[in-house]
Amino acid sequence: MKAIFIAYDQAHHQAIIEILDKMSCRGFTAFGNVQGRGSYKGEPHYGSHAWPSLAQAMMTFVEDEKVATLLDHLHELDESKPRLGLRAFVWPITASI
């Protein structure tokens, strides 16, 4: 199993859920509105007058064999609307209960 943390512009939320559904990745936790900015050229998502957009975040746990395909779908979504922003980070999971 791998943990995938996804940080994204709130406009991507429904599309990410649809990707997870399509891949039969049922479990996730969405963190709702979060603030942040991209590491390289992403615009801030602060929910302020100057930077009104907000980000969201999600954590999902998927089988190893689904990780590459899921990341490919997320990358396609990011490239379809590059100004919005989307990043995914993968961690190995060593135990679960």
Order of helices and strands: EHEEHE
Nearest-integer average pLDDT? 92
Number of domains: 1
At the first level of CATH, what is the class? Alpha Beta
Named CATH architecture: 2-Layer Sandwich
Q: What would you call the shape?
A: globular
| Class from helix and strand fractions | alpha+beta
User: How much beta, percentage-wise?
Assistant: 25-35%
> Radius of gyration, Cα only, in angstroms?
14 Å
Helix content: 25-40%
Largest sheet: 4 strands, antiparallel
The low-confidence parts are none
**What is the distance, rounded to the nearest whole angstrom, between the alpha carbons of the first and last residues?**
13 Å
Sheet with most strands: strand arrangement: 2-3-1-4
Counting DSSP E segments of at least 2 residues, the number of strands comes to 4
**Total of helices:** 2
Q: Assign the CATH topology.
A: Alpha-Beta Plaits
Structure, described:
The chain is α+β, with helices and mostly antiparallel strands. The chain has two helices and four strands, in the order βαββαβ. Helix 1 (13-22) runs antiparallel to helix 2 (64-80). It is globular, with a radius of gyration of 14 Å. Helices cover 28% and strands 31% of the residues. The protein has a single domain, classed as Alpha-Beta Plaits, CATH 3.30.70.120. The longest helix has 17 residues, at 64-80. It has a four-stranded antiparallel beta sheet with strand order 2-3-1-4, covered by helices on one side. The mean pLDDT is 92. It has helices spanning 13-22, 64-80, and strands at residues 2-9, 28-34, 55-62, 86-92.
